[in-house]
Design brief:
Helices cover 84% and strands 0% of the residues. The chain is mainly α. Helix 1 runs antiparallel to helix 4 and helix 6 runs antiparallel to helix 7. The longest helix is centred in the first third of the chain and has 35 residues.
């Protein structure tokens, strides 16, 4: 098969990843909105959309494997395809975490709020920003933007810790609040994990663009 056809295939792969990214971003947004509004129907939409996301991830994986087998690409093309495989895995896991948040929403829907949602939406906004910018870095082959996403990770950890510490203090004072506290603790954990996966995507973009591995190395 000729080179022109190969580059058409790469372009299609890029479009599919962007489609998957858009679906995942929508799942995060809907899961947070369902939590804020205690909207069970919206939470169920997120849960039901996960099957479509899983299917698209598998299709992208298959396309990547076929490209590797048929063309045996080198250098930047090889890094693009292997990065695509890694990114889709992280995107699918982010979608799973959006489902987890939606399930916590359903648990909390018929219970009074433990506390006003202040730090949780802040963490949610950061998670959405990190996913959006990591995908933007991928689309534009922007290693500098990708590295800036990685720097948000400490802020995400800090926000999660603030949420958890506050909720634990509430439970210590009143043990009967535990059934309302545990789902919120899990939401904070799910959001922090979304930030971790966005960081993984950003690190993969740096590898794709600059052939530089950031994983397991301290970031400046």
């Amino acid at each position: 098969m000729d080179k022109r056809h190969f580059h058409q295939e790469l372009s299609e792969l890029n479009k599919e990843i962007l489609k998957l990214g858009g679906m995942v971003e929508e799942s995060i947004s809907r899961s947070i909105e369902s939590l804020k509004k205690r909207d069970i129907q919206l939470a169920k939409k997120v849960i039901n959309s996960d099957e479509v996301i899983d299917k698209l991830e598998l299709e992208i994986d298959e396309r990547c494997i076929n490209l590797l087998a048929l063309y045996q690409p080198m250098a930047i093309d090889l890094r693009f395809i292997t990065t695509a495989l890694m990114i889709t895995t992280d995107l699918e896991r982010i979608a799973d975490l959006a489902v987890d948040i939606s399930e916590r929403t359903i648990e909390l829907a018929d219970k009074p709020l433990l506390k006003p949602l202040i730090d949780v939406p802040k963490l949610a906004s950061l998670a959405q920003k990190m996913v959006r910018e990591s995908l933007e870095a991928f689309v534009n082959r922007n290693a500098e933007l990708a590295m800036s996403v990685c720097k948000y990770d400490d802020e995400a950890d800090h926000l999660r810790d603030m949420v958890c510490e506050e909720i634990v203090e509430i439970v210590k004072k009143d043990g009967t609040t535990a059934p309302r506290a545990i789902p919120l603790l899990l939401v904070a954990r799910h959001l922090e994990r979304i930030c971790d996966h966005a960081t993984n995507i950003a690190e993969d973009v740096v590898y794709m663009v600059e052939a530089q591995m950031l994983k397991h190395h301290p970031r400046e």
